[in-house]
Amino acid sequence: MNTKIVKSTCGHCQSGCGVLIHMQGDSITRIEGDPASPVNKGVLCVKGKASLAYLHHPDRLTHPLKRAGERGEGKWQRVSWDEALDTVAEGFIKTKTSYGAESLVFMRGSFKGGFQGTYLARFANAFGAPNIASMASVCYVPRVHGSVLTYGYTPVPDYANPPACIVVWGANLAETRIGEYEQTVQALDKGAKLIVVDPRRIDLAQRAAIWLQPRPGSDLALALGMINSIITDGLYDKAFVRDWTVGFEELKEHVHKYAPDIVEGITWVKAADIKKAAALYATHKPGVIQIGNAIDHNMNNVQTARAVAILRAITGNLGVPGGEVACSSTGILNPLGSPELDLRDKISKEERAKRLDAATGMLPMAYYALPQTIVKAVLHADPYPIHAGFIQGGNMLLTYSNAQEVYQAFKRMDFLAVADMFMTPTAAMADIVLPVGTYLEFNDIVAPPYYPVVQVQQKVAQVGECRSDYEIMRGLAERLDLAEYFWEKETECLDFILEPAGLTFEEFREIGVLQGEKEYRKHERDGFATPSGKAELFSDRLKEWGFDPIPVYREPEGMPLSAPDLVEEFPLVLTSWKSAPFRHSGGRQIAPLRDAHPNPVVWLHPDTARRHGIGDGDWVDIETKQGRIKQQAHVTADIDPRVAGVDYAWWFPEEGPEGQYGWHEANINMLTADHVPAGSEMGTPTLRGIVCKISKAK
Ligand code: SF4
């Protein structure tokens, strides 16, 4: 039998690790990391290693389903693709005709690595529907805005040279960004100093010269304290500040308010440690700061990313070898959105203006509808009713804040279609469920967010009648007179994406990877891509749009300093993270992953556990003003005694539809509220740092 090795890219998270798929005839015999991939250099995480367990899982959705009982009851009828797509198209038309296209919402789950989200936006814009929801307000995009607003690009850490100081801030690299983890470890082996900023002792904290444990959610205050310390102690890069920044005097004046002893009162981090960390970063050059998802989770997210961007700028760590650098394009259409692909100009201005949140006052480049606004629109017709929805690979009952209301909203919808790989609690609320392939079942181009790289993804398998997200959008477009916007074959669309690079997808299969080049000291040639041409410590644009031109720390809602009346009843502070075996709510039914992490776990310090009579392995009730859940205690000195570290996005596939897949039992979003904070750049509710209490479960 023919044996061959196919180069591809893992799609079980956004990291985009290169894989080599070993085939015998049509069967996959083995998947290993691709040593030639610039992203992971041969390493795979546990999720990637479980790719075949995903592919062949007996619970995979393999054909379309139509609801046959009450909504959420779990009764389904198998239907053909034609019937399923006809029903979805009919649902869309009925909604548009009766209530207007704005009454239909398209919701994306987390980034899959390829262009699926763009296809959804393309469809929505061609259909004339303004409401597209993504996870932009809670993941990665705030960090992009913070950097781009300050100096015009998202910098890439230059590990090739390597850095003398690395700051890992709210980023659990070992479990969620494995390629960067490996690069960080190699740089440490070559002598780089490490600062870890995390309320718990993550893996890398063992190697840190300084480990700061801030109060969850107070990162912006900490960054401002470090800026203060660097300026006060004269440790900033004077030549870079003079030649390449604007607003230094205003910044210097502004950060008087954030002297380390004041910041200690906000963040719990000792003033002396703030000064030590600031000095280490400012004097061990070049340096990089790796920020993670933790800073995305409250209304200060863009300003926190701005403050970190300012730290990079005033220390002269931009554009230098071993620092953080701009990269040239990989040559293909921009994976983060290009008008030719997402057809943003196709929708009329009038219809676009009807977007939910258009009047909320977010950043002008934020064009998504916020999850919490959609839920309110469904439940209260405010500012107008949403009647129907389409979900592309998302489990919103687990991932949207205030899960109880999300559940009520799904129950209330006239029509809901969900495309996913497995039956999830969210898919269970649908009228139509469409089966989607894993990354092994369709061709794609993968653009991992943290690298200037695109890689090939190749179809090597077919499970049941599963289709790709592209094929689903194309099928719907055909039924809605929109076929002209979707090429007949997915590979033709990929050809279009590759066109600027002068390649077809067939040619790209052979090459497998395109890389942007690091552009050292690009600003010295071109200036920074900002209105002033400099790194903007003070941003006139933000001021003009009504936001803080220099970051100001404001305690987000539901946290100890904004809700002092709650602190007596809810004395602990809640945070959360993603554990290695699971990506968001995915993977709970995959045996090797679940075996590695069978139950949702809350990390508690021994002193805290003892005070509450809780032992390791006991089940614990965790409660906020919003609701209550149960998770199992992991008693460890690796977390601050004032913090409860809760597992994210848990549900129990084994409970089946009768038990509603246990979506409400351990789900952290039973504990979060969904208020849209006034005047924030991205409209992000407080997801970490809120006050909570614990007790031993009865
Ligand atoms: S880190 Fe993500 S892309 Fe890499 S192997 Fe794991 S799941 Fe796959």
Question: How would you characterize the overall build of this protein?
Answer:
- There is one protein chain.
- The protein is α/β, with parallel strands linked by helices and 698 residues long.
- It is 31% helix and 18% strand.
- It is built from 26 helices and 28 strands.
- The strands form seven sheets. The chain has a seven-stranded mixed beta sheet with strand order 5-4-17-16-15-6-7, covered by helices on one side. A six-stranded mixed β-barrel has the order 23-27-24-26-25-28.
- α4 (116-127) runs parallel beside α19, α8 packs across α12 (271-283) and α16 (371-380) packs across α18.
- The protein is globular, with a radius of gyration of 24 Å.
- It starts with a strand and ends with a strand.
- The mean pLDDT is 96.
- Residues 10, 12-13, 15-17, 40, 44-45, 47-48, 178 line the site of iron/sulfur cluster.
Write a brief caption for the model.
The protein has 698 residues and is α/β, with parallel strands linked by helices.
Using only CA atoms, what is the Rg? 24 Å
Q: In terms of quaternary structure, what is this?
A: single chain
- What is the CA–CA distance across the termini? 59 Å
- The poorly predicted ranges are none
**In percent, how much strand structure appears in the residues?**
15-25%
Instruction: State the major sheet.
Output: 7 strands, mixed
What sort of overall outline do the alpha carbons produce when their principal axes are compared?
Answer: globular
Hetero ligands: iron/sulfur cluster
Beta strands, count: 28
Going across the biggest sheet, name each strand in turn: 5-4-17-16-15-6-7
Mean pLDDT: 96
